[in-house]
Amino acid sequence: MSDSTGPKKQKRLNRREFLIVLGVGVAGLYAGVKLGAAPLRLRLVEWLEESGGPPSDINAPPDAWFEILPDNTVNLYLPKSEMGQGVHTSLAQIAAEELEIGLEQMQVLHADTDRLADPVATSASNTISGLYTPLLEVAATLRELLRLEAARQLNAQPTDLNLENGVFSLKSDPSQQRTYGELFQFAGDWELPENPPALKPPSQYRIIGQSLPRVDLPAKITGQAIFGFDVRVTGMLYGAVARPETIEGKLIRANPGQAASQPGVVKVIADRDFAGVVAESREQAYQALDKMELEWDAGRLWQQEEIEAMVSVGEGKGVVIQKEGNPRQALESGRLVEAEYRTPMAYHAYLEPLAAVADVRPDKTEVWASTQAANGLRGAVAKAIGQEEDQVTIHPVYLGGGFGRKIDERAAVEAARLSQAAGKPVQVAMNRPEDFRSGFVRPPTHNMLRASLSENGDILALDHQAASGEVAFPFLPGIMGTILGADFGAYRGATLIYAIPNIQTTAWLARLPVPTGWWRGLGLMANTFAIESFMDELAAAAEMDPLEFRLRHLPDDVKGQRMGTALQTAAEQARWGAALPDGHALGLAMGYDVGTITVEIAEVSVENGQIRVHKVTAVADPGLAINPDGVKAQTEGCITMGISATLLEEVLVKDGALQASNFNQYPLLRNSAAPDIEVLVLSSSATPSGMGEPPIGPIPAAVANAVFAATGQRLRRLPLKFA
Amino acid sequence: MQLMVNGQPYLVDDEPDRLLLWVLRDELGLTGTKFGCGIGLCGSCTVHLDGIPTRACITLLSAADGKEVRTLEGLAEIGANGEMIFHPVQQAFLDEQVPQCSWCMSGQMMTAAALLEKNPKPNAEEIRQAMDAVYCRCGTYHRIRKAVARAAELAGQSRSQLA
After folding, report:
1. Cα-based torsion angle of the residue sequence A414, A416, A420, A424 in order, rounded to the nearest 10 degrees
2. pLDDT at position A686, please?
């Protein structure tokens, strides 16, 4: 790999990786900036390669990010999915900053896979941290190439030019101007600099760091935005696909039965492993599907207790992922405190079920889908219909929520199989029970913590054992799991961030009959729930204030200083220690994830066993906040979704199937139960880090700790319930 | 039958027992109204029938016969020069930067618009109760409440300007 050495995140592009490909686009001239995928190659992929895994697809077709139009506006094509997290706005701010244009001059578009092939998914809060420097460098380079061309045309030196909103003018005669749009047609003669130009210091940013309005909202509030479920293609038909009732269910025999003679039916597919109907309307497709004769092997009829027993500390193989000092010995001195915590399986419950449209033709296939992983989807579709990957184009569209599950390839793969059979474009858009019962869920977890306390309230040693169902392993190729040992998705958030002289963290992993995988934050929420509840228990055992107890265990470094500032800012804002209405109490928790620190303080009351969260005060420190209001929105969203998970959500297995299939059996938090939220953003000139997931970590413990403060009862299992 | 949607008459030859949601989305191409659960619980599919917030996913086409259907696409007005004039609810949702993924927002905004028709000056508790009808998984509830209060203010301002 060309970039296997050197620092990962702040990498500079060299000429080889930074080819400008020129050509004529549909809407005008465009600069295709080939990023060579190197800077796009985010943590997971780098890490797969370092571990000796298969090389990722880095020689994708020319990567064209920018298209400059004659009217001096710029199209920015992004390989990252907009699923509500606001990355299209923050990435546009980054690009506009070094391109020296206003955000209103830029149109942000989802790139299809012919234009940009992002080798990893939009996931793990890695978009901003991964693209920040590369996007600044590409934009700055493009700007300087345009400046050289302007100087040539105006017979001037580059330093003789002013630049404002994409217009160069002579300092000596401002009437002499050239716009980006005018200059761009001369792009063919340009020579790339050996290195990208120097980037602005953050103190000079005018667009980054501003709470600019989101670029996707005007289309969203008028109903014009197109999501996966909304795509309409001329001649499109509707598909319905047979799905098993049980987790292990397999189709063993399919017969069209009376399906083909039902009204509106165009095609019935009864393959060995796949049965479905294509019809003129959605309802006709589903009605005809009911007339097929299908025989299923239900598989083993698993029960909830069996699943839960598999996820237990001590079951299977334990891998030590953090060790400092001699925890075994140190645990024997001092006062021992022990506790264990559990979280259940949970559903993603985005409100747009999985949906896609496929138009399969003999030589070329197009797919429109709400997907977090367009590049992976291209391969899956190609394989399913027997075409080459370069014959398949994925058009990503807006996602009605994703939360990790919209890497699920089924809707698109099924639409492609049905389209291939019918010879027409076909939509597969799931009903809620199909989406609910047939995909992967958040794995259950079991955490055991043991610590010894000194007489003056210092933690002498802490042993954390975290057991989980799989998160990342099911999605890694072949032997990767064996090489890695521990599932990085499951143990996300499990390592201890406090200064404790003797520490050991062990990850235990179980492969369950229920498919499990990514859910917002991966293992972060479960592990932070355990650790931050336990910190509260230790504070109580040491008879210390939970804030004070955390402050005295912060590491003596920059991260520890940031944590301390975040804790104290949150405490001050929430009036920690001040009098509250009768029956109300505060609970505190902190998290550190992907470089972002979050502190959350929940104000809770308990009446007749009902927990009510009245208010949450949060502090988020993502380093540099590209869009502070976006940081706030993600913090609010994580807190609200996290409270839903804390108080309500639990997927249970009964007789081999997921018990719930819709929101009547799996209610989500509603507006009247959602607290007011106040978020303070601490922004610095540090490298920006992700915000889509970190704030979901602390909220369950903040609520549980407040419940303890209000009632004296310690709840150690999600969803929080009184026995 | 003739279906009135956003002031436009549409001739539809669908079965009267088809669900209004799929007629709107799949026959008329009005995909601003979203599907979420199919059992009338999540509120993503909320439209107005004669001004009353109604779950299109469990409403038969026949129930819309002779009624005025309003969807998100019909919330804004078109000005004299063809420009779009946002409904106060749309303006307020934009001002407060409410939507994230926005799949539920059609249902949120239609619910809010119906509330303000009925009750132009709702108090905080009335807003909470009315907006309880629609799920938001991205977790924008707190901003929704702020935006509905702001929409009531905006609507009040424009009424007083007209008066």
Report:
1. 110
2. 84
Helix (H) or strand (E) holding A510: strand A502-510
Are A468 and A443 spatial neighbours (Cβ–Cβ below 8 Å)? yes
Q: Which CATH superfamily is domain B2-74 in?
A: Beta-grasp domain (3.10.20.30)
Confidence of residue A66 (pLDDT cuts 50, 70, 90): confident
Half-sphere exposure for A465 (CA within 13 Å, toward CB): 17
Report DSSP state, residue A669: P
Q: Which of B98, B141, B148 to mutate to test the interface with A (most CBs of A within 10 A)?
A: B141
Domains of chain A and any CATH numbers: 15-216 (3.30.365.10), 228-298+354-429 (3.30.365.10), 311-346+441-711 (3.30.365.10)
Burial A123-148 (b: 16+ CB within 10 A, else e): bbbbbbbbbbbbbbbbbbbbbbbbbb
- Residue A461 near residue A451 (C-beta atoms within 8 A): yes
Any chain A CB within 8 A of the CB of B34?
A: yes
Beta strands in A106-204 (DSSP E): 106-110, 161-164, 167-170, 177-179
A198 pLDDT above the threshold of 50: yes
User: Cβ separation of B22 and A281 shorter than 8 Å?
Assistant: yes
Name the DSSP class of A408.
-
* Residue A603 near residue A584, CB atoms below 8 Å: yes
- pLDDT tens for A605-640 read 999 999 999 999 999 999 999 999 999 999 999 999
Tell me the CATH number for domain B77-162: 1.10.150.120
* Cβ contacts of B142 on chain A, cutoff 8 Å: 636, 640, 674-677
- List C-alpha distances in Å: A182 to A97, A147, A150, A156: 21, 12, 9, 17
The pTM of this model reads: 0.93
- Tell me which chain B residues have a C-beta less than 8 angstroms from the C-beta of A281: 22, 26
What distances in angstroms separate CA A398 from CA A70, A230, A402, A619, B104, one per listed residue? 27, 10, 10, 29, 13
State what percent of residues in chain A have pLDDT above 90.
79
Give the separation between CA A121 and CA A109, rounded to whole angstroms.
Answer: 17
Element (H, E) at A254: strand A250-255
